[in-house]
Specification:
single chain; alpha/beta; Molybdopterin biosynthesis moeA protein, domain 3; Molybdenum Cofactor Biosythetic Enzyme, Chain A; Molybdopterin biosynthesis moea protein, domain 2; 654 residues; disordered N terminus
Length: 654
């Protein structure tokens, strides 16, 4: 961008001006998120994650009592009824045949116990003897290891604004600090010989300088840091020195307030040109006409600089229109549009045909109508911004609106994330976390949420219109085909596309060293073994049932068949914690928790997509990732995953 292309007060359309500016930033490497820094959790509220956060430890990291009561062995309570109570004895298995140990909520269970009886369900008889009148199931009133989070699972993606609960989750999974985007440093330089500080004595012609307060508060509310510079009089040399000092002090952005017009004391454009280059001077937007956009050079640093109009409404709107998108870009997050409502204009308004106008309005509901009333349009009337409920944007070449016209109000007070969420319901897979992470990095305006209800549950959710996609790996043992038969059965009449996410290896997850010497499915009939199963409708459970049948076994022969877990990592955690001696899942889940694995076969995991959602931007963004080389490499790096067919259409069903 050279000086001969600069345009001085020539009413450049806003989109064209922004394109000039961002193209220059991209050419100089400034149109990208800022580097990361590590901060303690206590200082991370509101910061933006610079990378994914993975759980270091499981939460809880031990089997914890969920109630005040007595830790027991569930088998010792069998047969207890109102008419035939069972007597327990305080102590451990070494001192009591049916031991019971007092525990409070949150305390670890003794190694020998697998359930808790609530204290109100126990009748003390004296001498440590306890009467119970109902049995308890294994793991009743117990928070098993990993109930909240399992080590290695994704806790938060990159480009996520940290909330108080997020800090608790990060701490709970073993972190004391977090890597976040460095906050942009915005230097604000007020200029004008007429300026006085708030509280100073006033005289005719003096103006209280508060634009820097408004601009600084905007910057801080949008995640930036502020370097407030002392006001400088209308002197070219002094303004130039102050701007040069701000650039040398590593400011990310310089805002020069006032002096951006074409008067004899308006030096902003000349100062920026003397230190670098002016890209745009004058934008067809009202209020905010005389905005200056440029670059300032200081040594090896290039710093963007904006000349912000001096009128307070123009200054504030310049912050909203131009400064916020810059900060959002540097912080790695999308610029959220405001909430909007439709309303009826109460009076006619005329608008200059050559400008994009931002008209401040109030809005209110009267009966069944939302009425929209314009406020004072003067660029110096800051009270109109204070009173405004929102902005009505009147585009260039529109002459305005008539009374009674329906207009869109962009509110100042967004269910944005909800409106931009892509929901995957169905079978759990570790790659869904990676998919969410890559979506957050590549397309931060969208969010991926997944719910693990099993493959069949996912197809049912699609049929009810409750999700965009469903993950499934349902084998038709009669045909050897995956998913097609079940889509036709559970989604009759719907046009569905099956898109392969990955091939993956399934098998038995076992404790390290395989201490029970399990060799395969047939061993699961041993009465001394405990099994961790997946929930009904899960593709892994259906595959396990098929393998049981092949081995000549019935479900009731497997101790723990009804012990249902909703994810592969949960199965691995059950094995890791000793809750189970074996469970079926993917190899990557076993490796994540450093467990042994007996392979039982490979399968195809598909995403079922109703064609009615195929053109939705969020869905397209998710599916585009299946062709992203870095995403494919990340999945291929997971143990037991094959990406050779990733992104291909496995079937079209109608």
């Amino acid at each position: 961008m050279t000086a001969d292309r600069n345009i001085y007060l020539h009413d450049i359309p806003m989109d064209e001006a922004w394109a000039h500016f961002t193209a220059a930033l991209e050419a100089t490497g400034l149109w990208r998120p800022l580097p990361a820094e590590e901060v303690p959790l206590q200082r991370a509220l509101g910061r933006v994650t610079a990378g994914p956060i993975w759980a270091r430890i499981s939460a809880p990291h031990y089997h914890a009592s969920a109630m005040d009561g007595y830790a027991v062995r569930a088998r010792d309570t069998l047969g207890a009824t109102e008419t035939a109570p069972v007597i327990l004895q305080e102590g451990d298995p070494a001192s009591a045949e049916r031991p019971a140990q007092p525990v409070n909520t949150g305390q670890p269970l003794p190694d020998w116990a697998d359930a808790v009886i609530m204290i109100e369900h126990v009748q003390p008889l004296g001498g440590g003897r306890l009467e119970i009148r109902a049995s308890v199931a294994p793991w009743a009133h117990v928070r098993p290891m990993g109930e909240d989070m399992v080590a290695t699972e994704l806790v938060l993606p990159a480009n996520h604004v940290l909330r108080p609960v997020d800090l608790g989750a990060i701490a709970g999974c073993g972190h004391t600090s977090v890597r976040v985007r460095r906050r942009p440093l915005v230097a604000i330089l007020p200029t004008g010989s007429e300026l006085v500080r708030p509280g100073d004595a006033l005289k005719p012609g003096s103006v209280i300088e508060y634009n820097s307060i408004v601009l600084g508060a905007q910057v801080e509310s949008w995640g930036g840091r502020v370097l407030r510079l002392e006001p400088v009089s209308d002197d070219f040399a002094r303004i130039r020195t102050a701007v040069a000092d701000a650039a040398s002090n590593r400011a990310t952005l310089i805002l020069i307030n006032a002096g951006s017009s074409a008067g004899s004391e308006d030096h902003t454009a000349a100062v920026i040109r003397s230190l670098g280059e002016v890209l745009v001077h004058g934008i067809a937007v009202r209020p905010g006409h005389p905005v200056v956009m440029g670059l300032v050079h200081s040594g090896d640093q290039t710093v963007p600089a904006l000349g912000v109009p001096g009128y307070p409404v123009s200054a504030a709107l310049t912050g909203e229109i131009f400064v916020r998108p810059l900060l959002d870009r540097w912080l790695g997050r999308a610029t959220e549009p405001p909430l909007t409502i439709q309303g009826e204009l109460t009076r006619k308004v005329l608008s200059p045909t050559g400008d994009d106008e931002y008209m401040r309005v109030t809005a209110g509901r009267v009966g069944d109508r939302v009425l929209v009333t314009p406020l004072g349009r003067g660029a110096g009337v800051i009270s109109s911004l204070v009173r405004a409920d929102g902005i009505v944007r009147i585009p260039r070449f529109s002459e305005g609106h008539d009374a009674g016209d329906t207009v869109t109000v962009h509110l100042y007070r967004s269910p944005y994330e909800i409106e931009h969420t892509v929901l995957i319901i169905g079978s759990h897979d570790l790659t869904l976390d990676l998919l969410a992470q890559f979506l957050a990095e590549r397309r931060p305006e969208f969010r991926l949420a997944s719910a693990h209800v099993g493959s069949l549950g996912g197809l049912m959710a699609l049929r009810r219109g409750q999700a965009h996609l469903a993950g499934c790996h349902l084998l038709d043992v009669a045909t050897g085909e995956y998913n097609v038969t079940y889509v036709r059965q559970y989604m009759p009449g719907m046009a569905v596309r099956l898109i392969t996410l990955a091939g993956r290896e399934q098998g038995l997850i076992l404790p390290r060293g395989n201490p029970r010497r399990i060799a395969g499915i047939a061993d699961l009939a041993r009465p001394d073994l405990r099994y961790a199963n997946r929930q009904r409708g899960a593709g892994t459970r259906l595959l396990f049932d098929h393998l049981l049948e092949q081995a000549g076994l019935k479900p009731e022969q497997v101790n723990g068949y009804e012990n249902e877990q909703i994810t592969h990592l949960a199965v691995a955690a059950a094995v890791k914690s000793g809750q189970a001696d074996a469970g079926m899942g993917v190899l990557a889940a076993a490796r994540a928790l450093e467990l042994d694995f007996i392979p039982l076969g490979t399968e195809r995991y598909d995403l079922a997509l109703p064609l009615q959602h195929a053109a939705e931007p969020g869905v397209t963004a998710v599916l585009d990732l299946l062709h992203d080389p870095e995403f494919r490499a990340a999945v291929a790096a997971l143990p037991g995953y094959d990406v050779s067919a990733m992104g291909t259409v496995a079937a079209e069903i109608s």
